[in-house]
Amino acid sequence: MDTDYVEHCYVALELSQRSWLIGYLLPGSKKVQTQNVAGGDTDALLEALSKIASKCQMETGPERCSHTLRVCFEAGYDGFWLARFLIDRDIDTLILDPSSFLVSRRGRRAKTDRIDVEAMVFTLKAYTLGDKSVCRPVRLPSVDEEDAKRLSRERT
After folding, report:
1. Which pLDDT band holds residue 1 (cuts at 50, 70, 90)?
2. Are 45 and 91 in contact (CB under 8 A)?
3. d(CA 155, CA 32)
4. 29-60: per-residue pLDDT in tens?
5. What is the C-alpha to C-alpha distance for residues 18 and 113, in angstroms, rounded to an integer?
């Protein structure tokens, strides 16, 4: 086995005002595990991410797990403060355009936070492994650019 090969843990966040659903896929696993934290509770989020990184290390062994969590969430009304918060703590973070996800056009599909977070985890994994057709990332604007947009949105 290649000793330079490192596995990552893929994490998706489904954000709402009341709660944040964290979905994660450990290396070698096919099942997304989930847990909730209170919406806006960054300390609880960091604690949960730390526990996920520890599980990754325990599952794969320290020589194969880089401790790198690849985190994503959909761009939304809250803006980009969470991405800046995570990036400032050296957490690899990707903001996804929710309208860019590939979805089946056949029939209606169920829509729950759990289903969404599971789909986002697998989308992040595919994107990270090179399939750039599964979604489109959003550029993280500067604080000044975000503030300029906020003024026009407040007027509207």
Report:
1. very low
2. no
3. 41
4. 899 999 999 999 999 999 999 999 988 888 76
5. 13
58-62 LR contacts (CB < 8 Å, sep 24+): 59/26, 59/27, 59/28, 59/29, 60/7, 60/26, 60/27, 60/28
- Per-residue pLDDT tens over the stretch 84-116: 999 999 999 999 998 887 665 565 667 788 988
Q: CA separation (Å) from 138 to 29, 92, 95, 100, 119?
A: 28, 14, 5, 10, 18
- Cα 74-77-139 angle, rounded to 5 deg: 50
* The residue to which tokens 């990707």 are assigned: 94
CATH no. of 7-155: 3.30.420
Distance CA 106, CA 118 (A): 19
